[in-house]
């Protein structure tokens, strides 16, 4: 439907009355509408105007010889016009004398005009009610669109079970966040419905108080058109968005063909949505991701990635409210489970059976007194302290150790061309003395996992902050370093003891770096 199908007809617009703001506007309204009023209302108007006329004459010290008379019913419309003209003249005279606006005069005229406004306002309110129903007709379509697309933003995540590991709290926080999002997915549509209802109710209630019907009509029509675009011709093209390295949902909206026209509606929607999410029981979801699902073309559950775009691209979605508690990188054939037994064999192979700690020989194993020898910042620091005791240690041994250890969870990929090429790049996580660098390992391991992702028919990774609406996109493993520079946060690495979670880092985004 088009705009004019919701616009009040010309006759209806002429019948309805906008709230006057000045005494002169009230007098004009009375002159225009008094002849449509019932007899008793007309007499009340005439008497009130006569009293107001005498009040104004005294206030501005004007002397006239016009007698007060009781007119016949036949000429009452003319008498009202005459009295209104007299009042209008006196108001003009008061202005010329520099007298301030008189609140009592305005109050009297507002009371006189009240009955004349009701009939016109009724038509206007009926028009607003009609537009409100049209707005409500989009609720179901929007709810379905959001709940279907939202499945990709709340994947199933196994709860970690190694409570002593570094990064356990961050991993647990993300797993719980996703579990809560899945349980609340059906309520996301309600959050959007409540937001739209709140927006329309504010406008309609204001119109009922002020009778500014035409202004309310324009605002409601704009909301209706905004929702119509969301359902029928979405503002954001998902494929276009993921072709960009970074951005925000608001930037994508504003750069769309019709975004600037509805920017005020968009911002108002976002502000109200932030308040109604919790009220609707969908508090685990953020306004940024719900806004994206609402504004973009529909996405569905992907066959390989979390979602499939309109062009068929498979996209892995990493959505976490906290950049430091991000989503894991999961590849299909990676092994899970407790690997401490096998990992201890790798440790012994490279570091021997014992090392000196505080002048005492201690056994080399996954669980040391200083902490667990996982591939984490603490784990690498402990391993680096061992390296200082090994005179024959070198970079080649360090690289070989990383390959053997990573090969435990990635055993099913060993021998494939993509894996063998990516695993060699772990050399970048080792310095010339054979010491390990955790940030470098995180980046290179992320590249390796992304390479495997793409061999499994995944096209891109979308990292989005559900609250802020900031996002980063990686379309190739070669973009990992640049994406880190733009704001991607990589946490964790490999927890060899955890029996549930994938042995991979977590990625997230907060504010963009530039």
Structure summarized in a few sentences:
The chain has 19 helices and 13 strands.
Verbal overview:
By secondary structure, the chain is of the alpha+beta class. It folds into three domains: 3-118, no CATH class; 137-306, no CATH class; 340-509, no CATH class. 53% of the residues lie in helices and 9% in strands. Helix 14 (340-351) runs antiparallel to helix 16.
Low-confidence stretches: 1-17, 65-73
Number of domains: 3
Number of H/I helices: 19
How many strands, which pairing sense, and closed or not: the largest β-sheet? 6 strands, mixed
Offer a few descriptive terms.
3-stranded antiparallel sheet; 514 residues; alpha+beta
Q: SSE layout and pairings?
A:
Layout: H1 10-15, H2 23-33, H3 39-59, H4 76-96, H5 103-136, H6 139-150, H7 168-184, H8 188-210, H9 213-232, H10 238-241, E1 246-248, H11 249-254, H12 263-280, H13 287-295, E2 300-301, E3 307-308, E4 314-319, E5 327-328, H14 340-351, E6 354-357, E7 360-363, E8 367-368, E9 371-372, H15 377-387, H16 395-406, H17 417-424, H18 438-455, E10 460-464, E11 470-474, H19 480-486, E12 488-491, E13 506-509
Parallel strand pairs: 4-10
Antiparallel strand pairs: 1-11, 2-3, 3-4, 5-13, 6-7, 8-9, 10-11, 12-13
Helix pairs in contact: 2-4, 2-5, 3-4, 3-5, 5-8, 5-9, 6-8, 6-13, 8-9, 8-12, 14-16, 17-18
């Amino acid at each position: 439907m088009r705009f004019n199908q919701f616009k009040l007809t010309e006759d209806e617009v002429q019948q309805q009355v906008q709230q006057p703001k000045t005494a002169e506007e009230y007098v004009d309204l009375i002159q225009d509408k008094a002849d449509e009023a019932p007899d008793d209302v007309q007499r009340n108007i005439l008497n009130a105007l006569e009293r107001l006329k005498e009040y104004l004459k005294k206030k501005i010290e004007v002397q006239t010889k016009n007698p007060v008379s009781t007119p016949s019913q036949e000429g009452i419309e003319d008498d009202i016009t005459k009295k209104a003209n007299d009042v209008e003249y006196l108001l003009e005279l008061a202005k010329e004398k520099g007298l301030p606006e008189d609140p009592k005069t305005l109050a009297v005229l507002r009371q006189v005009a009240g009955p004349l406004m009701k009939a016109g306002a009724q038509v206007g309110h009926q028009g607003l009610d009609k537009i409100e129903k049209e707005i409500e007709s989009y609720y179901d379509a929007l709810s379905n669109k959001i709940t279907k697309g939202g499945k990709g933003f709340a994947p199933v995540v196994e709860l970690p079970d190694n409570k002593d590991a570094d990064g356990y709290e961050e991993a647990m926080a993300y797993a719980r966040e996703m579990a809560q999002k899945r349980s609340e997915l059906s309520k996301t549509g309600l959050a959007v419905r409540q937001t739209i209802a709140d927006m329309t109710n504010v406008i309609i209630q204001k119109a009922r108080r002020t009778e500014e019907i035409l202004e309310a009509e324009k605002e409601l029509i704009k909301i209706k058109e905004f929702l119509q675009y969301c359902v029928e011709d979405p503002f954001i093209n998902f494929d276009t968005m993921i072709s960009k390295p970074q951005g925000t949902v608001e930037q994508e909206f504003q750069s769309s063909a019709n975004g600037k026209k509805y920017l005020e509606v968009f911002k108002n929607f976002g502000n109200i949505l932030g308040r109604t999410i919790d009220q609707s029981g969908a508090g685990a979801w953020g306004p940024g991701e719900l806004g994206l699902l609402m504004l973009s073309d529909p996405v569905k559950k992907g066959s390989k990635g979390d979602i499939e775009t309109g062009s068929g691209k498979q996209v892995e979605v990493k959505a976490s409210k906290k950049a430091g508690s991000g989503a894991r990188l999961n590849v299909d054939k990676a092994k899970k489970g407790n690997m401490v037994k096998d990992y201890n064999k790798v440790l012994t192979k490279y570091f021997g059976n014992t090392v000196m700690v505080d002048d005492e020989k201690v056994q080399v194993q996954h669980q040391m007194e200083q902490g667990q020898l996982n591939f984490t910042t603490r784990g690498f620091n402990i391993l680096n302290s061992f390296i200082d005791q090994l005179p024959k240690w070198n970079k080649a041994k360090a690289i070989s150790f990383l390959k053997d250890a990573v090969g435990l969870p990635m055993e099913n990929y060993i021998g494939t061309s993509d894996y063998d090429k990516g695993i060699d790049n772990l050399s970048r996580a080792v310095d010339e003395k054979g010491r390990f660098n955790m940030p470098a390992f995180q980046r290179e391991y992320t590249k390796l996992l992304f390479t495997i992702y793409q061999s499994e028919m995944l096209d891109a990774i979308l990292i989005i902050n559900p609250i802020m609406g900031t996002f980063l996109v990686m379309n190739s493993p070669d973009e990992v370093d640049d994406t880190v520079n733009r704001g991607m946060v990589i946490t964790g690495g490999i927890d060899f003891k955890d029996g549930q979670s994938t042995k991979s880092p977590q990625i997230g985004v907060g504010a963009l770096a530039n």
